[in-house]
Amino acid sequence: MFYEQVVREGHVFTFLSDDAFLVFPMPDGETVPFWSSLSRLKTIQRAHPKFRAYAFDDIALDTFLDKVIPQLADEGLRVGVNWSGKRLTGYDIAPAELRENLSYWQSKK
Fold first, then answer.
1. pTM for the whole thing?
2. Share of the chain above pLDDT 90, in %
3. Which residue in 42, 80, 86, 91 could disulfide with 33, CB within 3.0 to 4.6 Å?
4. Collapsed DSSP state (helix, strand, coil) of residue 17
């Protein structure tokens, strides 16, 4: 769902704290989560009040592919996609894998 929606809408969304991405420690390394819609972030804010303190960031897909993904890779960070639920769980993948998956969905468009 993440890839299809991001390619169709042309944007990804995340939370910011002091103009920086939120970074979460995970077993496989630090992860920055992104979502495929703003409504998903609003749902998280309703379910997890601590997230109400964070701003939203709307990133154009081209910027995400050309700047954000390489930056995350350079910093050794992983990418979380569409985390949800009480424990905010979901997939965490390497930036290169994310790029490949998005490229596949773009080729289907």
1. 0.93
2. 84
3. 80
4. strand
